[in-house]
Amino acid sequence: MSERDSMMLIVTSCRAEALDVMSIELRSPQGGPLPPFEPGSHLEIEVPAEEDTPRILRQYSLSNSSSETHRYVIAVGRMDKGRGGSLAIHEQVRCGTRLKVRLPRNNFPIVTDALRYRFIAGGIGITPILSMIQWCEAHGKDWALLYCARNRPRAAFYERLLVYGDRVRFHFDDENRGGYLDLERELSESTKDEHVYCCGPQALMGAVQTACKGRPAASVHFEWFSAGDRLVNVEQAGSGAFEVVLRSTGERLQIDADKSILEVLEARGISVPFACREGLCGSCETRLCEGEADHRDFVLTEADREAQKSLMICVSRAKSEVLILDI
C-alpha cells in the first residue's frame, strides 16, 4: 500500500451486528472529513499482524451511506478457516486502534439511472448492498432485497432491515429445511429495466449467475469474494509465454506460462501495488500502453476490456506477443 493513496484512521466504534459479525467505524484522528465514496465501494485495510510477519492486506465493503463524509463503516464476518484477516480484525481491533487504509475503490458500482433495483445478498454480502439501499432511499428509487442467511442470529443488520417492511424478504436455511429459494422463479418476475445486484457466498452467487443467464449482461452485477466463486471461460489462446516492456526504462521481461506479470516484477525487485493476487480488488490495475491483454480479472467491465487501456497484472495475460505497460 503506497503512502500516496493511503491514510491512517482510528477505530471509534466496534459493534456486534450478528453472530460472528462485527461492524467497525473509522474516522480521521483529526476529526476532519474523509475522501468521498460511492455505494459498492470498499476499503483496503492493512490488518494488524504479529511482529516480523508479512503485512496482511484485505478488502472490506463500506456499509454506511455514501452521503456521510465523517466516517467509514465496514462489517467483518469471522472466518476461523479463512486467510487470517477476519480473525485478526475480530481479535485485535478495538476502539482506539489505528489502521492504515487505502482510499475507497469501487469495483461494484451502482447504475444510477436504472428504474428499479433487485438486491440479493447472502451472509456478510449484505455489507455493500446496505450502502446501495441507503442510496436508493435517498434518491427515491424503487428497490427490493432478498437476504439469505443460515439462520436469524447470523443475519447482519437484521433489525435495521426490518424497518423497510415488505421491500425486504428474508430466507433462513434452518427455517426452510436447509434449502435455497427457487431463484429462477424469483427472478422471472423481474423486468428488463431492473438491475440485479448480488453479493454472497459461492452457492448463492453461482445460483444467481445461472438464473440470470438470459438477462442482458449489463443489468446483472456481482461482487465476488474469491476467484473460485465465479464461473469463467478462460481463453486458452492467451495461456502461453509473452513479453512485457516497461515503458519507463524499456526493459523487456519474459512472462512464462507458469508466472504472472506481478510475480516476474517482484522477482526483479520492482515494487508495484497489489493485494489479493486473484484479480478481485483492483489494487494492481496498470495502464496498458500497447498490446492486447487477455483479461482474467473480476473488476473491469466488458467496455473496459474492449478499450484495452488497463489490466490487472496479478492474473491477466496477453493475446499479443508483447504488452507495453506504464511501469
Write out key terms for the chains shown:
3 domains; alpha/beta; 327 residues; 18 strands; five-stranded parallel sheet; Elongation Factor Tu (Ef-tu), domain 3; 17% helix; Ubiquitin-like (UB roll); Rossmann fold; six-stranded antiparallel sheet
Could you write a compact summary of the structure shown?
Helix content is 17%, strand content 31%. The chain has helices at residues 85-92, 126-138, 158-162, 183-188, 202-211, 261-267, 302-307, and strands at residues 6-18, 21-27, 42-47, 56-61, 72-77, 98-105, 116-122, 142-149, 168-172, 194-199, 220-223, 242-246, 252-255, 285-290, 293-294, 310-312, 317-318, 322-325.
Could you characterize what this model shows?
- With 327 residues, this protein is of the alpha/beta class.
- The protein has three domains: 6-105, Translation factors (Elongation Factor Tu (Ef-tu), domain 3, Beta Barrel); 116-229, Rossmann fold; 236-325, Beta-grasp domain (Ubiquitin-like (UB roll), Roll), CATH 3.10.20.
- It is built from seven helices and 18 strands.
- The chain has helices at residues 85-92, 126-138, 158-162, 183-188, 202-211, 261-267, 302-307; strands at residues 6-18, 21-27, 42-47, 56-61, 72-77, 98-105, 116-122, 142-149, 168-172, 194-199, 220-223, 242-246, 252-255, 285-290, 293-294, 310-312, 317-318, 322-325.
- Strands 4-3-6-1-2-5 form a six-stranded antiparallel beta sheet, with helices on one face. A five-stranded parallel beta sheet has the order 9-8-7-10-11, sandwiched between helices. Strands 13-12-18-14-16 form a five-stranded mixed beta sheet.
- A hairpin with a 2-residue loop joins strand 1 and strand 2 (21-27).
